[in-house]
Amino acid sequence: MSEATLPDPATGIEVTPAQVSDLLPAVRRGEIALVDCREDDEWRICRIEGALLVPLSRFAEATPPEIPVIVYCHHGMRSLRAATYWRQRGAEAWSMSGGIDQWSAEIDPSVPVY
Q1: Contact 12, 80 (CB under 8 A)
Q2: Are 103 and 22 in contact (CB under 8 A)?
Q3: pTM (global) more than 0.90
Q4: Which residues pair with 53 in a beta bridge?
Q5: Distance CA 53, CA 51 (A)
Q6: Transmembrane segments in this chain: where (predicted)?
Q7: Which domains does the chain have, with CATH numbers?
């Protein structure tokens, strides 16, 4: 079985929670960054293990990672904006569709829904 890889950036900006789940070993190895762009109060409710918190409200002052990055939020709208913002600044960035809400429904039901 071959290791999961990110899709070609030219084919789209979104990845599914299942794709992100398959990529978690690369996140753990530091080959891909996983960024949560929700706010601190949301982060305290739940998060995906290995994610870094960079609230969308502070994206203008954040430096995009130099490695590929997957961004997620609550339902996928803020992360889409965040990934687009970082792509415009030269980063390899994708948004996880459906956000942590879909992650909880499809991948890890132990993650609280709010």
Answers
A1: no
A2: no
A3: yes
A4: 36
A5: 7
A6: none
A7: 12-106 (3.40.250.10)
